[in-house]
Write a structure and sequence with these properties.
- The protein has 89 residues and is α+β, with helices and mostly antiparallel strands.
- It has one helix at 41-67; strands at 2-6, 9-13, 18-22, 27-34, 72-78, 84-88.
- The strands form 2 sheets. It has a 4-stranded mixed beta sheet with strand order 3-4-5-6. Strands 1-2 form a two-stranded antiparallel sheet.
- Strand 1 (2-6) and strand 2 (9-13) form a beta hairpin.
């Protein structure tokens, strides 16, 4: 994600890696793939949650506004160690 400040405006550029929408029950899932390298497996989940939660919050806000949804889950897919999804609050 690129953040550029211009005068009093803020411009964001980013791409949601995976977006799944369930049309039957109006829910959605946003998944962001991460390949960050963290030296301690024990600290990885918390570190990556803290590092990327704002990015996923912004993606969620954009998807909510565009699709008029209010039930969106945010996850990261972590390649290092886990190869699994981590939910972001």
């Amino acid at each position: 994600m690129t953040i550029v400040k211009v005068n009093l405006m803020l411009s964001l550029q980013g791409v949601v890696d995976l977006f799944i929408k369930n049309f039957l029950i109006s829910t959605a899932l946003i998944v962001d793939y991460k390949t960050d390298h963290v030296t301690s497996k024990k600290m990885e989940k918390k570190f990556l949650r803290d590092r990327h939660k704002e990015q996923l919050r912004i993606y969620k806000e954009a998807v909510e506004e565009y699709y008029k949804l209010d039930n969106i889950k945010k996850h990261m897919f972590i390649r290092m160690y886990y190869h699994s999804l981590i939910e972001i609050e």
